[in-house]
Amino acid sequence: MNHKYWTNAVHKLSSSISIRTQNSPRLLSNSKHVIDARIIKTGFDPNTSRTNFQMESFIKTGQLIKARQLFDEMPNRNIISVNTLISGYVKTGDLVTAKHFFDGMPSRTTVTWTILIGGYAKHGYPLDAFKLYADMYRSMIMLDSVTFATLLSGFNHKIWKNQMIQVHTHVVKLGFSSACTVCNTLLDCYCKCHCLDLAFRLFNEMPERDSVTFNAMITGYANVELNEEAVDLFLTMQKTGFKPSGFTFAAVLNATVGLGNLFLGKQVHGFAVKTNFIWNVFVGNALLDFYSKHGRVEEAEKLFHEMTEVDGVSCNIIISGHAKEGNYEKSLTLFQELQGTNFNRKNFPFSTMLSIAAYMLNLKMGKQIHSQCIVTSASSELQVGNALLDMYARCGRFEEANLVFQSLSHADAVPWTAMISALVQTGYHEKGLDIFIQMCRENVNPDQATFSSILRASASLASLSLGRQVHSLVFTSGFVSNVFCGSALLDMYAKCGSMRDATKAFQEMPDRNIVSWNAMISAYAQNGDGDGTIALFEEMVSTGLRPDPISFLNVLTACSHCGLVDQGTKYFNSITELYHMEPRREHYVTMVDILCRSGRFGQAEKMMAEMPFIPDEIMLSSILNSCRIHKNQELAKEVAEQLFNMKVRDASAYVNMSNIYAAAGQWDKVVVVKKAMRERGLKKPPAYSWVEINHRMHIFSANDKSHPRWEDIEKKIESLSTRMEEEGYKPDTSCALHDLDEDTRAEYLKYHSERLAIAFALISTSEGSPILVMKNLRACSDCHAAIKIISNIVGRQITVRDSSRFHHFKDGYCSCGDYW
Ligand SMILES: [Zn+2]
Ligand SMILES: [Zn+2]
Fold first, then answer.
1. What percent of the chain has pLDDT over 70?
2. Ligand that lies nearest to the alpha carbon of residue 779, given by its number in the listed order
3. Angular region, 309: left φ>0, alpha ψ -120 to 50, beta rest
4. Distances from the Cα of 527 to the Cα of 361, 410, 490, angstroms
5. Rounded average pLDDT over 389-393
6. Repeats (PPR): which ranges (predicted)?
7. What stretches of 686-802 adopt beta strand conformation (E)?
């Protein structure tokens, strides 16, 4: 924008000789008369004119010194000579010399003023530009649309609101308010500075509008996420027949992404086709972005192949889009194709590719991309550097990660946070904590992302004592009112089993956004409080906040945990019917899960046939789990077959498969599954449970006799077993899949990790106090049944957090109602 106005100003400068006189600026006179007057007044000299022209050429080619020499040697200079020289100094940013010549001029034209105003505006001194403009206004110099445009181009922030309003007043006073171009400039400026109220008032008051007016207003709305307003205005624009620009399309598509409105976006797509804008690469990219953000990569891909012109941006969008949907193979192929093009390599989606390598734990691919990053010097970019670090750390190569870490600047919190978050995400919580402590020692201030990571570590460790320490650090760092830190705090307390602290954190937040509401709703959902989840969701809606896909996912998850089929169906349908959004893959996964858990396999199959996705492994695994609960052997075998052919990476799916075959007595298939698991390099992660007693973590794995108090633990388990049998407990030996006899299997079950942790907690804490035990995997159904009875025998509240949710055991019952 800046540049365009500037060129205009220079253009005006060269043609000004025929339009303006310096002494009667506000008089309109015929041009012939003006030229005559100038010749008499300035002693118009063809030689001067020629030299001015030469000076201008020198300035254009960056030879300011030569231009200055010419100027110094000129026998007769006129006002144009000085204007040209000033514009030369302005161009190089030497505003002091420019001002020096400006001050030395006996008289100045509008152009002179405008050049210098433009200089200040362009080089980031909008206030100086405004002061000069105010002098100009007071000196009764004629203002024109270029002056306004030049001045306004410097305002880029709300802080200049008062100055903009003053300019607006002048525009009205001088009779420019009916000039469309001037008003457009002003409107654009208001929008750019996020003064949308003023922009909209001006928009309404304009006697005449053109396409530029609409485009500016729509872009303005979209930029501050007034999405509905942007879309409405776009529709009005269509009705009134004004032509959109590429920017308008991009803005309105952005707005439809914000609204989550797929239908509307498709309409805009159709309109772009109709108006021939579809060939514009800028519009095409906005559409690609729109489709991939809606999870419609197939449509994006189709468009991508139809586009006559694609650039690096288009490729980036489509590669990242595929990556987001988990089609890594596709991303890889496209990335390889991209390397054969001559697009600027610096813009390649290195960080996306690195995160794919990190996700796939494909170190070889990560290293290849690393070497390309080095060749293109992209590795020096912070984002790429962090992605590299993350990739190595996740692949378990902490040495390489550390090398990358050392090469990044340490003054900033970002690389520290990347290192910490990589460690936390890969389960090295203590190491992450060590780095955090080192970071604090080196006086690097943690930012909200650092705290979020550390809080996540505390949540994963379920270490309430650590979480509380971090809480006080967050408090002293002043981040406690930060909505993201606040939400992470809330989440930490909820995951550490303290709903009371979580609720308190939520209530104390000075402002809450969708993230904080979602965190609180999720806390209720994880705890299996279906009614609480729904009540909170409705409360959020009543405050005027629009639920986002995550809010719906939380509500659906709660419905799935609590077997609320009707409620779940209602909320699932409301996504499209009430909120006009497209349900995402994870919504379908949860909805199918809700139906299957309640045994409505027919309905689930119908939904799967109608949904716009192919069922993925998560969906199939959850169906398999429901088949196990409802003993639906028929479907189970079918699903297991599909899963087996998908070559999934999740070991628990194989475990489920082999369980299904084992229960059906198909031992040959069990062998096949186990062999495939070995061949595909998958291992069932070892199950372990842990419990925090007096600020110390005690970790147990099944049959683990290494704890110093093993004898007491064993004694406790044995005495509990006797009592449990009296209460009618019978071990469910199908949970122990070993080719062993019944008694050995039952014996084995007794020493599952969570039971060791509970037994230890029982002998280490006072009578009647609640117990919180964490488990890295899902609890087996025998342990679930056993803990219910134990809670009754010992009269304690026992909470078990497994990989998917909380189980609150009390008086022989579990809060999950055996739905899990
Ligand atoms: Zn168990
Ligand atoms: Zn339960």
1. 93
2. 1
3. beta
4. 32, 40, 14
5. 87
6. 109-143, 179-209, 210-244, 280-314, 412-446, 513-547, 650-684
7. 688-693, 696-701, 771-775, 798-801
Q: Which ligand is nearest to the CA of 815?
A: 2
711: pLDDT confidence band, cut at 50, 70 and 90? very high
Any residues with CB less than 8 A from the CB of 793 and at least 6 apart, and which? 720, 723, 724, 727
pLDDT band (50, 70, 90) for residue 13: very low
Handedness of CA 258, 296, 533, 495 (dihedral sign): negative
By DSSP bridging, strand 696-701 and strand 798-801 are: unpaired
Are the beta carbons of 322 and 333 closer than 8 angstroms?
A: no
What is the CA(738)–ligand 1 centre distance, in A?
Answer: 14
Helices (H), ranges, 161-261: 161-173, 180-192, 196-205, 211-223, 227-240, 246-259
684 CA to middle of ligand 1, Å?
15
Cα distance from N-terminal residue to C-terminal residue, the chain: 58
How much distance in Å is there from the Cα of 777 to the middle of ligand 2?
A: 14
Tell me the DSSP string of 327-348.
Answer: -HHHHHHHHHHHHTS-S-GGGS
What phi and psi, each to the nearest 5 degrees, are found at residue 752?
Answer: -65, 150
Selection from 273, 223, 264, 274 nearest residue 247 by Cα: 223
pLDDT at 525 over 50: yes
Query: Residue 775: nearest ligand to its CA?
Result: 1
CA of residue 339 to ligand 2 center, whole Å: 52
* Sign, CA torsion 617/619/620/624: positive
801 φ, ψ to 5°?
Answer: -100, 110
Angle between the N-to-C axes of helices 429-441 and 413-425, in degrees from 0 to 180, rounded to the nearest 10: 160
In this predicted model, which residue has the larger pLDDT, 651 or 599?
Answer: 599
- For residue 784, the CA-to-ligand 1 centroid distance in Å is 7
Helix, strand, coil share (%) of the chain residues, nearest 5:
70, 5, 25
Instruction: Give tens-digit pLDDT for 148-180.
Output: 888 888 887 888 888 888 888 888 888 887 788
- Asked whether 52 and 84 are in contact (CB, 8 A), the reply is yes
d(CA 628, CA 649): 21
Whole-number CA gyration radius for the chain: 35
Residue 451 carries which DSSP code?
Answer: H
If you measure from the C-alpha of residue 65 to the centroid of ligand 2, how many angstroms do you get, rounded to a whole number? Answer: 83
Distance from residue 778's CA to the centre of ligand 1 (Å)? 9
CA of 782 to the centre of ligand 1 (A): 6
In this structure, are residues 653 and 621 in contact, taking their beta carbons and an 8 Å threshold?
yes
**Residue 806 CA, ligand 2 centroid: distance in Å:** 7
CB 85 within 8 A of CB 55: yes
pLDDT score of 22 more than 80? no
Distance CA 561, CA 558 (A): 5
Flag whether the pTM goes above 0.70: no
Q: How far is CA 766 from CA 665, 713, 718, 790, 796, in A?
A: 46, 15, 20, 16, 10
Question: Which pair of structure tokens corresponds to residue 184?
Answer: 């457009």
Q: Are 115 and 148 in contact (CB under 8 A)?
A: no
The neighbouring-strand residues paired with 691 are 698
Which three-class secondary structure state does DSSP give residue 795? Answer: coil
Report whether 751 contacts 764 (CB < 8 A).
Answer: no
Q: Determine the Cα angle at 614 with ends 609 and 615, to 5°.
A: 85
Rounded mean pLDDT, 660-686: 80
Task: Give the closest residue to 190 by CA, choosing from 211, 215, 217.
Answer: 217
Measured in Å, residue 702 CA sits from the centre of ligand 1 at 9
Residue 21 has pLDDT above 60, yes or no: no
User: Is the Cβ–Cβ distance between 119 and 95 less than 8 Å?
Assistant: yes
Distance 747 CA to ligand 1 centre (A): 12
748: nearest Cα among 803, 701, 812: 701
Q: What are phi and psi of 244, to 5 degrees?
A: -75, 165
Separation of 730 CA from ligand 2 center, angstroms? 18
Ligand showing the shortest atom-to-Cα distance for residue 528? 2
